[in-house]
Write a structure and sequence with these properties.
Number of strands: 3
Helix content: 10-25%
Strand content: 25-35%
Radius of gyration: 14 Å
Order of helices and strands: HEHEE
Distance between the termini: 11 Å
Shape: elongated
Number of domains: 1
């Protein structure tokens, strides 16, 4: 049985991903950052937010997570 989890972290997703990946023996498949999307020139994101993670897909020994 596959499980899909949606977790939110206030600016610390990078650290949380490392912890969960190690605990679940997971391998990163795809990581999407805010900078991967075109920015609206009328409402640009601050430079410090462009590197934040928007979405991540990983695989664990139990399957896709």
């Amino acid at each position: 049985m596959a499980a899909i989890a949606y977790l939110n972290f206030d600016g610390i997703a990078e650290q949380a991903i490392e912890i969960y990946s190690e605990a679940l023996h997971a391998n990163e498949v795809k990581k999407v950052r805010f900078s991967d999307f075109p920015q609206d020139p009328n409402y640009p994101l601050p430079e410090n937010e462009l590197n934040l993670i928007w979405s991540l897909q990983s695989n664990s020994q139990a399957g896709k997570s």
